[in-house]
Amino acid sequence: MLVSSIARFNAKSILNTQQYKQNNSNTNSAHTFGGEHELSMLNKLDQKLGLDLSTNKLLYNVNYLQEKLVNKHQANNKKHLLNVFA
Fold it and tell me: Is the pTM value of this prediction over 0.85?
């Protein structure tokens, strides 16, 4: 479960990096912060990356809680089996 989360986060990171490079190649590098269009683009990127960060944090917390629940369930099953055999 942890490996799949790491793979998913790496894939998202690669996609975001590629999109960032593509957006930078489309703008005039001499006037990156020169006009309203570029600032609005930066604002949109900032909001999107902020949402991606929140989504990744939520997915991490959900996976962490699922693993914790599974471990607790396994521990309870072990105790139950030991009580049955005793």
Answer: no
